[in-house]
Amino acid sequence: MFLESDITALFITLKLAAITTLILLLLGTPLAWWLANTRWRYKFMLEAVIALPLVLPPTVLGFYLLIALGSNGPLGKFMNFLGGQSLAFTFTGLVIGSVIYSLPFVVQPLQNSFNLIGRRPMEVAATLRASPLDRFFTVIVPLARPGFFTAIILGFAHTVGEFGVVLMIGGNLPGETQVVSIAIYDHVESLSYSHAHGLSALLLISSFALLITVYALNRRYSFNVKE
Amino acid sequence: MTLACYLKSNHHTKKISLAICFSILLGGLVIHSANASTLRIAVASNFTHTMKSIVKRYHEKTAQRVLISSGSTGKHFAQIMNGAPFDIFFAADKRRPEIIENNNIVQPGNRFTYAIGQLVLWSAKIQDRHLNLSIFNNFTNKYLAIANPRLAPYGKAAEETLKKINAWSRIRKNIVMGENITQAFQFAASGNAALAMLAYSQVKQANANGQYYLIPKNHYTPIEQQAVILKNNKNVQSFVSFFKSKKSQDLILNAGYRLP
């Protein structure tokens, strides 16, 4: 039912989603923590910037990235300066695009759960002489576990479903930038509906399973909190 | 009409009269759109610009409204197969018009070739006045942008050309594909790809700086763009005969196509 190129596309997609989610966790956690605790006056501006990928059509994001990565764009010039190749049409380029594209899906659930926990647990731990890092990892992270689950799964799933950005900066290179959503689009456009059906069904079922996991886990954890 | 309906109604009959009002309004809309002598044409993206200038000339002699829907031939095809109300379909290839004819959506004889596309090699970056296919003899650390051969006729022509000069498999990993020639153009115009294989009409229209080289036409199967008349009536016939007139044909030639 699946072509060899489809399996490759599936593998690239999973790899892209996994790496993107990992980077987003590393970047998003401190960012969300800072946003949840800062009293900076202009915090709302940064929050709006982070939420932009939620409302912008992905093609807009992809278009800007294509220009930025091009030889006359800032990122392209920077890469030339470093003596490197353009990042368009590379897996690395897709990772950069996906990190921006899925940023709100990781930062927002984390920030919400940090907000819910409040300052109190950190203060209590401080009276027990726990260092800031220690407090964060032994107190906040376990308490924010549902937030982390939601962030990971949404970030992952949203990257799997990415289309517009990849379309604009990917270049459809098999084994490098051809992801599942693009493969499906090609199948539909070239009228090979049976291949499109197979891949689409696979995406539908796995996305549904991921979302069920999010909601089931959130339910379980909210019960735990009540106890 | 709405006001009259509202006045007539009292609380007993309100629902019924509302329903009647609605159907009258709806009926009015349907009749209105059926009456209007608007011509609806679906045009492949690469020909849209040319079509617009033809329609402009057409308007010099008639007041008939012409609606142009520009888009990919694949999408137009799917819409037409599902009953989209187009009068004429100007496709980017001849495959889709053929399928429409073979599915008995139109009578035979309503299909004609209206333009033949020319493939061009274009670069915004490389300032070589003698740009030609020999550039692929040594093609590393660069990208060539083409349209996806599975989806776009110009992409297929590009693939055929590269296979003909035995470069396809050697430079395959340097070939990036757009969904259509417009995207391939963007890849090259933004400086991300050094070269692109595009439609000559597109390069002419974009009036873009850079070098181009017309690829010899014996390197690829002719890119025949066919049209199919979906509804045959007086308005459609008058437009088609204008389209086939010398005036329009000159516009097509000037736009960078060959004529059948």
Question: So what's the oligomer here?
Answer: heterodimer
Unreliable residue stretches of chain B: 1-9, 28-35
Provide the gyration radius of chain A in Å.
20 Å
Q: How much beta of chain B, percentage-wise?
A: 15-25%
Overall CATH architecture of the largest domain in chain B: 3-Layer(aba) Sandwich
Main structural class of chain A: mainly alpha
Q: What is the residue-averaged pLDDT of chain B?
A: 85
H/I helix tally of chain A: 11
The coarse overall form of chain A would be globular
Average pLDDT figure of chain A: 87
**What is the correct CATH architecture of chain A?**
Orthogonal Bundle
Q: What is the count of structural domains of chain A?
A: 1
Q: Which topology of chain A does CATH recognise?
A: MetI-like fold
**How many separate domains make up the residues of chain B?**
3
Task: Give structural notes.
The complex is a heterodimer of chains A (227) and B (260). With 227 residues, chain A is mostly helical. Chain A has one domain: MetI-like fold (Orthogonal Bundle), CATH 1.10.3720.10. Helices cover 80% and strands 0% of the residues of chain A. Chain A has 11 helices and no strands. Chain A has helices spanning 4-37, 43-55, 58-69, 74-82, 91-117, 120-127, 132-143, 145-160, 164-169, 180-189, 193-226. Chain A is globular, with a radius of gyration of 20 Å. The mean pLDDT of chain A is 87. In chain B, helix 1 (2-8) runs antiparallel to helix 2 (14-35). Chain B has a 5-stranded mixed beta sheet, sandwiched between helices. In chain B, 43% of the residues lie in helices and 20% in strands. Mean pLDDT of chain B is 85; it is low at 1-9 and 28-35. The longest helix of chain B is centred in the first third of the chain and has 22 residues, at 14-35. Classes of the chains: A mainly alpha (227), B alpha/beta (260). The interface between A and B is medium-sized, with 24 and 23 residues.
